[in-house]
């Protein structure tokens, strides 16, 4: 004689078990059962007025291009340009629909300075960056990423910072690195570091916002809803 319960009894047991589990779930989570959110502490980034400039760039889509090397600066120009072109061809978006920041920090910082600065201090920059002018194979005497004539010899492929600025791009420039390069120049030329720093700050490429440190700007941009891509 078999000790197995009948199929009818088995179905009855499973039905009662399922009902019990469902009842337990309702009792344990009444808010969820009623379609109400479960109260919970929610982390939110603290806002600082120093970062409000990121909110003042118009656009429905936000992108932050982070660069930290000589070649990375050129790549940043190219990828930012591609972002504008593809957004237009693929989505019908205008430049004004895109909020774009290109960050120049660490070894890409000197490219935030004008041709006049490179004419005076290009040798210091080149030595530190291990970067030479592809036309002359010596230290640049101009900001090469502001010259269309270099074409495909550089990763920006002839597009300049000025061209990006006309599309609405803002440049986040590392102030910490600016102080560091000012110190290098001062030591090399027997100048006062603070005087050189003020000279660098007063001769940027335009559309620049100097931030305390580039790596901080990366963090703040992400907290303000910008997508981040880094080029080193």
Structure commentary:
This protein is globular. The chain is of the alpha/beta class. A 5-stranded parallel beta sheet has the order 4-3-2-1-5, sandwiched between helices. It has 2 domains: 1-40; 52-231, Hypothetical Protein Ychn, Chain: A, CATH 3.40.1260. The chain contains 8 helices and 5 strands, in the order H-H-E-H-E-H-H-E-H-H-E-H-E. Helix 6 crosses helix 7. Residues 7-33 have low confidence and may be disordered.
List the helices and strands and how they pair.
Layout: H1 7-28, H2 30-33, E1 61-67, H3 70-91, E2 98-104, H4 115-129, H5 161-166, E3 170-174, H6 175-189, H7 193-201, E4 208-211, H8 214-223, E5 227-231
Parallel strand pairs: 1-2, 1-5, 2-3, 3-4
Short description:
Helix content is 44%, strand content 12%. It has 232 residues and is an alpha/beta fold. It has 2 domains: 1-40; 52-231, 3-Layer(aba) Sandwich (Hypothetical Protein Ychn, Chain: A), CATH 3.40.1260.
The rounded distance between the terminal residues' Cα atoms is 78 Å
- Specify Rg, calculated over alpha carbons: 28 Å
Shape type: globular
| CATH-scheme architecture of the largest domain | 3-Layer(aba) Sandwich
Low-confidence stretches: 7-33
Q: What share of the residues does DSSP label as strand, in percent?
A: 5-15%
Summed up, the domain count is: 2
Adjacency order of strands in the biggest sheet: 4-3-2-1-5
Structural class: alpha/beta
């Amino acid at each position: 004689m078999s000790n197995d319960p009948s199929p009818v009894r088995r179905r009855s047991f499973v039905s009662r078990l399922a009902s019990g589990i469902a009842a337990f779930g309702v009792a344990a989570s009444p808010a969820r059962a009623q379609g109400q959110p479960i109260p919970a502490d929610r982390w939110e980034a603290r806002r600082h007025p120093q970062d409000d400039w990121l909110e003042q760039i118009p656009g429905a889509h936000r992108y932050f291009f982070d660069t930290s090397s000589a070649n990375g600066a050129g790549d940043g120009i190219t990828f930012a340009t591609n972002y504008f072109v593809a957004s237009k061809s693929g989505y019908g978006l205008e430049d004004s629909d895109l909020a774009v920041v290109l960050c120049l920090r660490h070894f890409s910082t000197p490219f935030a300075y004008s041709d006049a600065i490179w004419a005076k201090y290009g040798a210091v920059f080149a030595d530190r960056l291990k970067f030479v002018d592809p036309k002359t194979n010596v230290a640049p005497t101009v900001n090469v990423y502001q010259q269309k004539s270099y074409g495909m010899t550089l990763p920006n492929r002839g597009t300049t910072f000025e061209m990006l600025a006309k599309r609405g791009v803002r440049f986040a420039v590392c102030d910490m690195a600016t102080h560091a390069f000012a110190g290098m120049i001062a030591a090399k030329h027997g100048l006062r570091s603070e005087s050189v720093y003020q000279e660098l700050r007063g001769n940027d490429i335009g559309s620049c916002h100097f931030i305390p440190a580039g790596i901080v700007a990366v963090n703040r941009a992400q907290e303000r809803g910008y997508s981040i891509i880094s080029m080193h």
